[in-house]
Amino acid sequence: MHAFNYHKASSVADASAKLAASDDSRLLAGGQTLIAAMKMRLSAPADVIDLGGIAELRGIKIEGASITIGAMTTHAAVASSNEVAKAIPALALLAGSIGDPMVRNMGTIGGSVANNDPAADYPAALVGLGATVVTSKRKIPADQFFTGMYETALEPGEIITSVSFPVPKRAGYMKFKNPASRYAMVGVFVAESASGMRVAVTGAGPSVFRITEMEKALAKSFSADALKGIKVPAENLNTDIHATAEYRAHLVTVMAQRAVDQALVK
Amino acid sequence: MPVRLSMTVNGKPVSADVEPRTLLVDFIRDTLRLTGTHIGCDTAQCGACTIHMNGVAVKCCNMLAVQAQGSTLLTIEGLAKEDGTMHPMQAAFRDHHGLQCGYCTPGMVMTAIDLLKRHPHPSEEQIRAELDGNLCRCTGYHNIVKAVQAAAKA
């Protein structure tokens, strides 16, 4: 790992000031991706700004018909939260399926969302539930937040402070894990909310995306059968040593059906 | 610029100056000389470096030492009593031969203790799922699962 200057932020305002003072910096959340990337020298910032000491960024709050999760809240905290399990069981289940127990004790929702790994789980939940990303500067709808592979709408100097999820009528998340890394080869989040149906896919393409054809079919009948026969085009999907784009396209329909079944059970 | 680091490790206060890029596992092994915590894959996959930070299991090869500033750490060396009496989980691993080469064992034991805190009466399926982040390349999982089951009853 290359040497860097370490800065511990005491508040969001302090972190913003430290970001503004450096022209080559990275924010450190749980570090489960960043530290690994720095060890491989894929990332070598001059300044690392640690958000770990900012209490205001942690915690889960129920506010009317939505759940707001602080950016530095760990996956383990979301997975074991009674409030989340009661309001959006699929979200608790998703958080509990990220990585392994030790990774979940360090990794955070803000870090995962900001990194926008194409195989990360949280982007599917954010887009699937129509969540809002709250930053130090503004509120960004999830549909506009994830802009491409490892790319987001975040501007330089902008810090995610929380993510707000509207509570759906029902939701489900199912993923096909890579047998070695356990990352989602394909993960599908389905939700029925006041605002309508949403089907969001992670792992299959460069970034999370919705499938309107499936959303329309589910609006007619919320059942796994309604998705039968819907073929997702393999064009623009990922091909790697683990799976071809065609295989991923096939998995999307299978995982979407299983996600619907899960939503119906919960 | 070195950072002054203070924490509690296995019940004792420690402090030292570290370079910010020092990994927590290197601080534990090289500075504190607690070499029971192993480096296996060095990529946060194998779990040989598992310790407890503030009561929960973490992989200390994938963390900076400065992230543990002010925290309470427990490593494999902190489990047995002063007189050498093993922790019930260590005893269960010995009794059920839950190890072959032993390289993964410190991490397995630390994760197993963490899982029993959250699931005091785990099913075999739960134990296997919870050990997802610990790899044994001797593939001795059956006896490891038996050891965890026995420790849950101890």
Percent helix among the residues of chain A? 25-40%
- Overall 3D shape of chain B: globular
Gyration radius of chain A (Cα, Å) is 18 Å
Low-confidence stretches of chain B: none
Tell me the major beta sheet of chain A.
5 strands, antiparallel
The CATH homologous superfamily name of the largest domain in chain B equals Beta-grasp domain
Please, what is the CATH homologous superfamily of one domain in chain A? CO dehydrogenase flavoprotein, C-terminal domain
- The radius of gyration over CA of chain B amounts to 15 Å
Share of helical residues of chain B = 25-40%
What is the CATH third-level topology name of one domain in chain A? Answer: Enolase-like, domain 1
Compile the SSE list and pairings:
The complex is a heterodimer of chains A (266) and B (154).
Chain A: E1 5-8, H1 12-20, E2 25-28, H2 34-39, E3 47-50, E4 60-63, E5 66-70, H3 75-79, H4 82-87, H5 89-95, H6 101-106, H7 109-115, H8 122-129, E6 132-135, E7 139-141, H9 142-145, E8 146-148, E9 151-152, E10 160-166, E11 170-177, E12 184-193, E13 196-202, E14 209-210, H10 212-220, H11 245-265
Chain B: E1 3-9, E2 12-18, H1 24-31, E3 50-53, E4 56-59, E5 72-74, H2 88-95, H3 105-118, H4 124-130, H5 141-153
Parallel strand pairs in B: 1-5
Antiparallel strand pairs in B: 1-2, 3-4, 3-5
Helix pairs in contact in B: 2-5
